[in-house]
């Protein structure tokens, strides 16, 4: 049981390039989330999904798109990367139930030059 | 405005001491709180949670206290070890039924000296 995994672990992009971050979970969780973490600002929600085929905007969605074609995968896309998107990105998942505990992946460190 | 915050950005303790990390919240409607630990280069790791109908909850070497009167949350770590060195976040669950989002504080760094 790997939990939540993220690929890649590190990436450097040039301004204007595109990329996709992959999140996978093997816990059969309904909810999945993408956050970004910047120094001194804590975790901020980018997009989330409440089930396969659904997505919704979080706190800071501009410049990002997401897709949840399969229950176990949640993809985060950057169509035209900007230096302001330099950050550490975390994916999380949560089960449908009585707890709101989210389980996090190891993160992807993205640098946009 | 509504916020989840921490009183101290860095807490330094000696190995074997008890550590107390504090968190203030401002939304009295929040009903669920979580503490996470984040080690350098890793994702946040769940430590312990508490619902608003409880005042105290204990885990292995950790205790969370909730004071709803002053909207204050604390994490107590007993016999702190060097492996406890990390950033600790509190998170507040708020939102409508069906989907609740977590609002995270900025974190407190715990440094444990041998």
Descriptive key words:
heterodimer, A: 113 residues, Immunoglobulin-like, 4-stranded antiparallel beta sheet, 11 strands, B: mainly beta, 5-stranded antiparallel beta sheet
Structure in words:
The complex is a heterodimer of chains A (113) and B (114). Helix content of chain A is 0%, strand content 50%. Chain A is mostly beta strands. Chain A has one domain: Immunoglobulin-like (Sandwich), CATH 2.60.40.10. In chain A, strands 2, 4, 5, 6, 9, 10 and 11 form a seven-stranded mixed beta sheet that branches. Chain B has a single domain, classed as Sandwich (Immunoglobulin-like), CATH 2.60.40. Chain B contains no helices and eleven strands. Chain B has strands spanning 4-5, 10-14, 19-25, 32-38, 45-51, 56-58, 62-67, 72-77, 86-94, 101-104, 108-113. In chain B, the strands form two sheets. In chain B, strands 2, 4, 5, 9, 10 and 11 form a six-stranded mixed beta sheet that branches. The interface between A and B is medium-sized, with 21 and 21 residues.
* Cα separation of the termini of chain B: 40 Å
Q: What is the helix content of chain B?
A: under 10%
Quaternary state, please? heterodimer
CATH topology of chain B: Immunoglobulin-like
CATH architecture tag of chain A:
Sandwich
Shape of chain A: globular
- Roughly what is the average pLDDT of chain B, rounded to an integer? 87
Major sheet size, sense and barrel closure of chain A: 7 strands, mixed
CATH superfamily of chain A: Immunoglobulins
- The structural class of chain B is mainly beta
Q: What is the end-to-end distance of chain A?
A: 36 Å
**CATH class placement of chain B:** Mainly Beta
Alpha-beta content class of chain A = mainly beta
Number of strands of chain B: 11
Q: What portion of residues of chain A is helical? A: under 10%
User: How are helices and strands ordered from N to C of chain A?
Assistant: EEEEEEEEEEE
Stretches of chain B where pLDDT falls below 50 for ≥5 residues? none
């Amino acid at each position: 049981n790997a939990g939540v995994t993220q690929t890649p672990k590190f990436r450097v992009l040039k301004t204007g390039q595109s990329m996709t971050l992959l999140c996978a979970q093997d816990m059969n969780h309904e909810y999945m989330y993408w956050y970004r973490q910047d120094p001194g600002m804590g975790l901020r929600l980018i997009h989330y999904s409440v089930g396969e085929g659904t997505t919704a905007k979080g706190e800071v969605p501009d410049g990002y798109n997401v897709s949840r074609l399969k229950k176990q995968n949640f993809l985060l896309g950057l169509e035209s990367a900007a230096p302001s998107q330099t950050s550490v990105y975390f994916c999380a998942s949560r089960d449908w139930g009585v707890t709101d505990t989210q389980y996090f992946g190891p993160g992807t460190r993205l640098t946009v030059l | 405005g509504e916020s989840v915050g921490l009183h101290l950005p860095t807490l330094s303790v000696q190995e074997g001491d008890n550590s107390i990390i504090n968190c203030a919240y401002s939304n009295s409607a929040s009903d669920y709180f979580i503490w996470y630990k984040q080690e350098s280069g890793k994702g946040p790791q769940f430590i312990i949670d508490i619902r608003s109908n409880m005042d105290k909850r204990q885990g292995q070497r950790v205790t969370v206290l909730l004071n709803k009167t002053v909207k204050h949350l604390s994490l107590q770590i007993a016999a702190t070890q060097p492996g406890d060195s990390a950033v600790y976040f509190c998170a507040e669950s708020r939102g409508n039924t069906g989907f609740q989002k977590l609002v995270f504080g900025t974190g407190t760094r715990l440094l444990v000296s041998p």
